[in-house]
Every structure is written in structure tokens, then in C-alpha cells.
Fold:
Amino acid sequence: MKDFDFYIVPTPIGNLSDITLRALDILRKVDVIACEDMRVTQKLLNHFDIKTKCISYHKFNEKERLELFLEILNSGKKMALVSDAGTPLFCDPGSILVEELRKNDIKITALPGANAVVTFLSQVPRADEPFTFTGFLPRTKTQLIEVLKQSARGDVIFYESPNRLMDTLEIIFEYNPQAKIAIGRELTKVFEEVVIDNVQNVKKHFTQNPLKGEVVGMIYKSYEKENVAEIKEKITLLKGKNFKAKEISTILSALYSYSKNDVYKLIIND
Structure:
């Protein structure tokens, strides 16, 4: 197996059992672990009885750590990079470091592992494969609306703070009251939940069930008029297979950014 100097290592997004055997092996073998929050990483290492030295590396000291890390690596030692949870460089620091290491011909590899976006998407039905990942949503309404415009062309995946989610859902509702939304919270944890519905019902759900924990969400591709003919074609096909109207509404609302009621209206008017 090829030997590397620097390893990008995903860590669990909630359930510690999700860490891979290879990740544990690398974290034990390297000389130094660069981590976002030493307190968070130390809990993980203690759980698996790993004694490797840690050095803090976060968005406020990214550039000043470059010289130190290059010195460590050039001395023949090996390093790993982890974030607090999930895969580094996904809305976490690391990009500046990796760019600098490649300029200096440091041998780098990344391990596969936990990632909130992949975990979320693997349990959310979508009509098409393409999507846009926008990271954490912008804080201002004007900037958020610019992101929402992207949903006219395809599904938009985002991270959001639980403290801001209700405000975000309100802006989405103002922009497009028919928007279909999927929200996942506490993924891989005890209180994991994924809610898929129109934005108004999602707002109502989380008003009654206050949010805690990390949030990943998706705004489904906006419904467009040119999809009507395609939906009607699918309705005819499913009717021919003896599916009932309720079943057809459920199936097609999962595939298109259209509510069950709106699909049902197309069925009865067909």
C-alpha cells in the first residue's frame, strides 16, 4: 500500500461507531493530528484509547499554522487532519493547508468516511442526480434569495444553524410558498429526524417540535410549468398500471417539487 505523509480523516457526525477501522489505524500511527477543536477531538481519541498528539487548526489560525506543519512534515513525521465532525474541507478549514502542502510536494491522501450531506441525501428521494451544495446559508435575506433562485434549476443542499432555521424557512416561504423542503437533524444520533413536505408544513412541524442539533436541508427544484406535461404523462402511465389516485399523488410528489394535493388536482382534472 502506498505510503503518504498527510492524511485527511473523516470523523463521525454523531454516532462514534461510524468511524472506520482505517481511520482509527491512521490516527494511531501518525505523529500529529491537526484538529479544529482539541476538546472535541480529544473526546473521540479518548473513546478509542488513542494517544496521538493534537495541535489546534481552525479558521482563525489557518495561515499561521502553515510554517509549523511544513516543518513537522519535512522532518519526516506524518500528520492527519480532522474536523469536529464529518469530512474535513466540507465547510471546515483545510483548503489553505492542502493547497500549500501540494505546492511543497507533500504526499496527501483522503480517507472515505462520514459526511452529513451524503448521509442526508441517501435517505431523501430526488427526481434527478444533480444538486448544488451551498454550504451554510448566508445570513442576509437578499443573499439567501440569490441562493433560492438556484432552486429553479435544481435541488439545493445546505447547512443551517438550528437557531436560524425558522427565519430561513420564513424567507423561503415568502419567496416561494409552494417550495418543497427536506430537513434532517441529529443525523446518526438518537433523535435523528428527516422531514419532507412543503415549506409551510415544515415550518409548522418545527414550531411544534423545537430544533436542536446540527441541520442539513434541501430545497427541491422549483416546480415549473413545463413539467406539467411530464407529470401528466406519468399520471397516465401509473393509471395504466392500476395505481390509485392517492398512490399516484404520493409517488409523484416525491419525484417533483409539487404537493400531493396539487398532483391530485392534476389527476382528477386529467
Summary: The chain has three domains: 6-114, 117-219, 227-268.
